[in-house]
Each structure stands twice: as C-alpha cells, then as structure tokens.
Amino acid sequence: MARIFGRELTLAGVARWLAIGCVVTSLSGWASGWLGQWSWPFELPSHFPLHQAAVLAGLAVVLLRSRRRQLASLALLVAAVQVGVAMPRGPSARSSSAVPRTLRIASLNVLIKSHHAEEVRAWLEAQQPDVILLFEVNRRWARDLWPLRERWPNVVTEIRGDSSGMMAFSVLPIAKHELIPLDDSERATIRLDLETPDGPLTVVLLHPPPPTRPGLMRQGHVELDALAKVVPRLPKPLVIAGDFNATPWCPPFRGLLRETGLVDSRRGFGLQATWPSPLGPFGIPIDHALVSDDVQVLDRRVGRFVYSDHLGIVLDLKLNAPPSS
Hints:
By secondary structure, this protein is an alpha+beta fold. It has helices spanning 11-30, 32-35, 40-43, 49-65, 69-86, 117-127, 139-145, 214-230, 251-260, and strands at 3-4, 7-8, 103-109, 131-135, 154-158, 166-170, 174-179, 190-196, 199-206, 238-243, 263-264, 287-291, 295-302, 313-319. The protein is 33% helix and 23% strand. It has a six-stranded mixed β-sheet with strand order 5-6-4-3-14-13, with no helix packed on it. A six-stranded mixed β-sheet has the order 7-8-9-10-12-11, with no helix packed on it. The longest helix has 20 residues, at 11-30.
C-alpha cells in the first residue's frame, strides 16, 4: 500500500480529498460572478460545470461504497447543481427548419500554427456557406486561403502580428466594413454590413484573448463589457460570431447576453462543444454566434476536425422580413 506523509493511501482516502477539492472548486466557480473580475483562479472553474459534475458523481460512487455517505451526498448535491448551472436559460433560438434560409454562416478558428489549409478549404467547400468567418489568420494563412476567393469573391482581411488576425469571405455583397474599437484593446474586431436577399445584416467578428493568465482574462472582460456598450448602436438584424474564449456559464458571457438582449444561437441545439477539438462532444463550447431577436436560427451544427484545436460552427439563419410601409 502506498503511503504519503506516513499514512496509507487508500482509494477511499483519495476519493475523499478529491471530492472535497471538487466541491471547493465548484463553489469558487459559482462565486466567480463576484470574485472572478479580480481573481483569475476563481473564474476558471466556471467554464467546466459538466466536467466537475461527472467527476463528483464518480467520486460519490466510491464514497458510498466506502460508507462515507455524508460526503457522497454532498458530492451528488453539488454535481446536480452543476448540471443545473449548465442547462440553457432563456428563450430557445431554434426556429422551424421548414422556413427557407436567408444565409448560411461558417465560423472557424483555424489555429495559427496549423499548416492544414487544404483541410479547412475542403470543409468550407463542403458546407457551402454564404459567409465565412475565420480567426487566428496570419499572412501565411491568408495566402493559403486566398483560393477561396474564386467562390467567395468578397473578402475582408485584418492581419495582426499576433493571433487576433481575421478574415471574412462572402458571396453576398459587403456594403461596408470597419474596425470596432473595444475600449483600449489592440485586438481586431470587425463589423461587416452585408446585403442579403432579405435585407441588410450586420455581422461582427469577435476574438477576445484566452484567459490563460490574469492579465489576458481581464482583457477579455474589458472587450466583452465594451461590446455590450457598442451593441445598442449597431444596426439590426445583428449576428456576433467568433472564438469568444469563454463558455456560456462564465460571468462576462452571461453579462453580455443580459445587457444586450442577444440570444445564444446554441439554445435548442444542445451543448455543441468546440474546444479542444480532440475531445469532440466532451469539450466545452467557446465558439459562439449571438443573434438579435429578428434573426431566426434554423439550424446550428459543429464541424469536423480540420487539424485546429477548435471545431467550426455552421448556422442557417433567416432574417425576419421588415414590416411593409
């Protein structure tokens, strides 16, 4: 029997300490609405409620077999609350698929260090979107993706020295495009004004930094908070899409929906995990598309693996016809 600090290490003992650790981690995630703005470790657990629930449920089984019923009951209770936290709230974005779509949008973080542009192009060509939104695009990626212009002739490119570069391709006319300043952030955020068969549509490409350290987490908060202030001034119908580097359960994301009235397009379509791509449906959803209430989401799905750490998303949308004058 293994020993640690002079004591025997048993399965029940390991399960006990792991369960206590998971409960504390879950509590910190719930408290991140108050503490996450200032303390990076508190917010990180808020991105993984379902994973924590699964671990707690497994540990509860071990604890029950070891007759640690009180701790097992606490673990099951916290697991149930975590599942509740992960359940979608608010109105579903899903509309009848019998309605003819206005356009299809495909959005993907290509992974700046990947060299598999042919896989990305093949996936995009198979999806046949009207609009393509791509993130982490550098000069090499822009060059390798340029052949897409034969089919999607309207192109907007914003290349930066970091991973915040973006590229958009469209078969629909782009009446206007501009950079949107989000507070003092130097990362690109692009607004596109598209001309669709059902009228104009505003599309915003967004890619805050990943919360891998406290400074980047705060920068991501700043961008989402600034975006919430910009949204009321943007023309509707509106779609905001991209790699948000945030799950639907973290405080900044919830605040963005609450302050703007935008709807998460995942609602009604399941978890739709997109990162990390090798985990498939067992990952977390950090690639999003938010829509105004005059945009119907007919279908939303996650793409296949294309050698990026993200999976792409594809949306079929219908714009509500403007009232006749």
